[in-house]
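can u pls check wat happens w/ protoporphyrin IX containing FE
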Amino acid sequence: MNFIMLVLRLLHIVAAIIWGGSAILMSLFIGRGIEATAEAGQRFAQYLTNTLRIHIFITISAVTAILAGSMLYWIDSNGFSSSWMRSSAGIGFGIGAGFGLIAFVSGAIFGNGNARLGRIGAQIQEKPTTDQLAQIQAIQKRIKRVSPIHVTSMFLAMIFMASARYLMF
Ligand code: HEM
């Protein structure tokens, strides 16, 4: 069991670091940089999504973190049945997991929006058509709305995960 726990912890923590770090960097810096640098930013965004497939890399780390985290929770709580779930650590990891799931859903909307922007950008010839412009603006609006939810829930998940063992409820 110790070996399984070690592997799951390594998978969970390494994937969560990659996922959380990428998500915060994308939302707070790269996304804003792309928006502020107009055409150059659009080309950079297209390269990130269409060539480097950054959204797939982030999705794989997010899914790995959540699957390994859920398995750790399952083992720690003896299949969701032990009193560990009602202990301070169990509640702390549970709250962190809740924020992790909110970060996952909001991140999926964010990442999907960026990928769609990359695809539309690749179709644009010289200037965007009115339809393409309307689509770009609608997607950018959705990304702006979801981004604070994504960043906040990610920070809260990190804070609860890192402190769960030391909390006193
Ligand atoms: C659905 C999402 C998640 C679930 C179910 C989950 C579950 C867990 C569980 C049960 C542990 C304790 C493992 C053990 O017994 O050693 C843990 C530890 C940890 N998790 Fe998560 N987690 C989730 C999301 C996240 C996220 C989003 C982050 C950070 C971005 C994160 C970072 C960590 C870290 C750093 C630890 C080690 C804490 C320690 O050893 O005290 N987790 N997670």
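The mean pLDDT is 93.
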